[in-house]
């Protein structure tokens, strides 16, 4: 087996490009980054910065920072699963008046 084939088998496909497309089609302005993707969310008077990439255990992690530490962390197997988490949170924010994005992400994370 060639080293290219072996490396391809060992490197998971995290689908960051697909995740960005999914987020954009859902109305979330995502940017593809060298490490994965980022999203800036206007949550009333607070701007949230979400950065998603591959963690050292090869899972996909996303930190969400609301202008000052600590960040909220979320974990999934793929970037498209993380995009689905963001889209679920967006739905919750739209459905529940006054719900913050951080609370919506935490609620969606429990589902």
Summarize the structure.
By secondary structure, the protein is an alpha+beta fold.
Tally the structural domains: 1
Span of the ends, CA to CA: 41 Å
Low-pLDDT ranges: 5-10
Number of helices: 4
Rounded to an integer, what's the Rg over CA atoms? 15 Å
**Helix/strand class:** alpha+beta
The order of strands across the largest sheet is 1-2-3-4-5
Taken from the alpha-carbon principal axes, the silhouette is globular
- How confident overall, as mean pLDDT? 87
Q: Percentage of helical residues?
A: 40-55%
Q: What's the story with the biggest beta sheet?
A: 5 strands, antiparallel
Number of E strands:
5
Q: Estimate what percentage of residues fall within beta strands.
A: 25-35%
- The string of secondary-structure elements, in order, is HHEEEEEHH
Please characterize this protein's 3D structure.
This protein has 111 residues and is of the alpha+beta class. It has one domain. The chain contains four helices and five strands. The chain has a five-stranded antiparallel sheet. A hairpin with a 2-residue loop joins strand 2 (36-43) and strand 3 (46-54). Helix 2 packs parallel to helix 3 (79-95) and helix 3 (79-95) crosses helix 4 (101-110). It is globular and about 35 Å long. The N and C termini lie far apart (41 Å). Residues 5-10 have low confidence and may be disordered.
Tag the structure with descriptive keywords:
111 residues; alpha+beta; five-stranded antiparallel beta sheet; 41% helix; 33% strand
Helix/strand layout:
Blueprint: H1 3-10, H2 16-25, E1 30-33, E2 36-43, E3 46-54, E4 60-66, E5 68-76, H3 79-95, H4 101-110
Antiparallel strand pairs: 1-2, 2-3, 3-4, 4-5
